[in-house]
Amino acid sequence: MTNKCTCPQCGFDHTIGPTDKGAISEVETIALFRATYIQYKIIERALVSSVEGVGTENYGQLALRQLHIAVLRKYILQSREYVFLPKVLRACLAILPDEYQSLGLGDQIERNLARLTTNKLKPPIEFVNNGIKDERSLNTVVIDYLYGLLLHADPRRAEASINGGPLNGLLSSSDWLYFASMCVDEMNTLVERAIYFKDGRAEDLPSAQDFSFTDIGR
């Protein structure tokens, strides 16, 4: 059912949608990213240490790996978030010297996010369950588990995750997590450069030409 309310201005019913978040400055954006990144790394260390001594592809790691992905989703999957990576990049470029504008960082981060949020990345091996080939992308496998079994209980996604088999979920979440973590870690490096420049320590910065985002395509 669509939620509606009667507008006090015109008297007509309008659909109630998500409220837009208020804008924050470039400096506030990079400070917020840096604060959340520090917390993310604390959680990452805790999750990694919780499975120390267990094989890296043990099925017991799947839920913990997906919990790790849940922490990362505000950077990768949630475009309304203040720390969505393209927003953080724009904030950095507004602060850093002009030569960073010519590096094509915006195009590369958009390509990387497209691969993480669409069907452009496929699992490294073919999975078959009950004679049916699993055609899902890494992103779909991850989202099916995340919203079907972990954060929410979407019945369609839960069924797809269960029927897809634990090995597909395990390996696909491992690959997705690897690529997503790389994107966030590299953005943090750029944020650190922006903070140095903002604080008047530009002489300590490496050359702009020494920076790039890794292309996660295959």
Task: Give a description of the structure.
This protein is mostly helical and 218 residues long. The chain has one domain (25-199). It is 55% helix and 6% strand. The chain contains seven helices and four strands; from the N terminus they run E-E-H-H-H-H-E-E-H-H-H. The strands form two sheets. It has a two-stranded antiparallel ribbon with strand order 1-2. Helix 1 (26-50) crosses helix 3 (85-95) and helix 2 packs across helix 7. It is elongated. The termini are far apart. Mean pLDDT is 86; it is low at 6-14.
The portion of residues assigned to helices is 55-70%
Q: How would you state the average pLDDT, rounded? A: 86
The first-to-last residue Cα distance is 41 Å
Count of helical regions: 7
By secondary-structure content and strand pairing, the structural class works out as mainly alpha
Quaternary state reads: single chain
Strand content: 5-15%
Strand order of the largest sheet: 1-2
Net shape: elongated
| Count of discrete domains | 1
Give the topology, please.
Layout: E1 4-6, E2 13-15, H1 26-50, H2 62-76, H3 85-95, H4 105-117, E3 127-129, E4 132-134, H5 138-150, H6 155-164, H7 166-198
Helix pairs in contact: 1-2, 1-3, 1-7, 2-5, 2-7, 3-4, 3-7, 4-7, 5-6, 5-7
Which features would summarize this protein structure in a list?
elongated; single chain; two-stranded antiparallel ribbon; mainly alpha; 218 residues
